[in-house]
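> call design_seq(struct)
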């Protein structure tokens, strides 16, 4: 495993790996990429999330069916393990682990891979950057999209499953966060820390950058449907009373119409399978007999059939469903 050179040779390495990256895209276009399954029937899709002490030591990775059944704890360490991107064949989970057990950007966080069949864990990256987080697998399971901080600059990067062939795909003054792939594997979705934070769609080569979220919203995490036609995002809006209205909105990419699906007291993670949005957060007593905090829910695109999937009153951050 090669470490990324964070010194003067960094830009030269980026140019070389860019050529390798372009070749991988050409291979995907030629039909050599593994097929990506579409929407799975209810009960067949898997949800992956981290849970524990809200981003500090003892956060672990969990997996369960999308109806809330068959909950399993995948990691059980004293380290901070976050995120969780599931391969399309449901055989591997990629996540970050901080050996210091904290969220301080001190170069101890790397990307790891867990084989769900053998239970074996493998360290993927050895970059020793200031911070690494939010790994997301491409639909054909060939690339990892992630966030990395180098010399206090936070950008989006991509590498192969072995942690090699690293390529920076953004180079802006603004920070980028929460990246994910569109199902075609050629476009990505991410949050840009402008004012306000905005939801952005962009080609992997950096072209055709488009803001999707409403200008009055502060976007905070998003997910794209498996057919690539809809995007759901978590929004926060600051009113004159300084109260943040929070919830989930859905964008139809065919006409860019935006509608609010649900209001939430607090929302963190979000994912989509079929016509349902899955999210972790807290809901007021207007939805349930009592306020429900720190659980995972699902709801249809049209705002109906709200379901509560967990009931253990522990902080959770939903990351993926496949």
């Amino acid at each position: 495993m090669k470490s990324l050179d964070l010194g003067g040779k960094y830009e030269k390495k980026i140019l070389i790996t860019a050529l390798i990256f372009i070749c991988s895209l050409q291979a995907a276009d030629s039909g050599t990429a593994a097929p990506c399954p579409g929407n799975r029937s209810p009960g067949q899709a898997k949800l992956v999330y981290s849970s524990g002490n809200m981003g500090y030591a003892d956060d672990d990775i969990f997996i369960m069916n999308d109806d809330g059944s068959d909950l399993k704890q995948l990691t059980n360490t004293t380290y901070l393990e976050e995120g969780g991107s599931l391969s399309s064949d449901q055989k591997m989970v990629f996540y970050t682990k901080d050996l210091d057990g904290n969220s301080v950007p001190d170069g101890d966080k790397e990307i790891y891979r867990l084989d769900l069949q053998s239970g074996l864990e493998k360290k993927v990256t050895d970059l020793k950057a200031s911070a690494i987080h939010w790994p997301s697998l491409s639909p054909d399971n060939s690339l990892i999209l992630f966030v990395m901080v180098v010399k206090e600059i936070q950008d989006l990067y991509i590498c192969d499953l072995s942690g090699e062939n690293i390529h920076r795909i953004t180079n802006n003054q603004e920070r980028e966060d929460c990246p994910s792939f569109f199902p075609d594997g050629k476009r990505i979705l991410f949050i840009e820390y402008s004012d306000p934070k905005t939801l952005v769609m962009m080609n992997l080569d950096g072209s055709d950058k488009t803001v999707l979220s409403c200008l009055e919203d502060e976007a905070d995490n998003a997910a794209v449907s498996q057919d690539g036609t809809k995007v759901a995002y978590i929004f926060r809006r600051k009113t004159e009373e300084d109260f943040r209205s929070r919830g989930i909105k859905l964008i139809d990419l065919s006409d860019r119409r935006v509608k609010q699906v649900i209001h939430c007291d607090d929302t963190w993670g979000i994912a989509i399978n079929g016509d349902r949005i899955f999210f972790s957060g807290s809901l007021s007593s207007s939805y349930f007999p009592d306020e429900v905090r720190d659980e995972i829910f699902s709801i249809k695109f049209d705002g109906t059939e709200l379901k509560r999937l967990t009931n253990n009153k522990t902080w959770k951050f939903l990351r993926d469903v496949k």
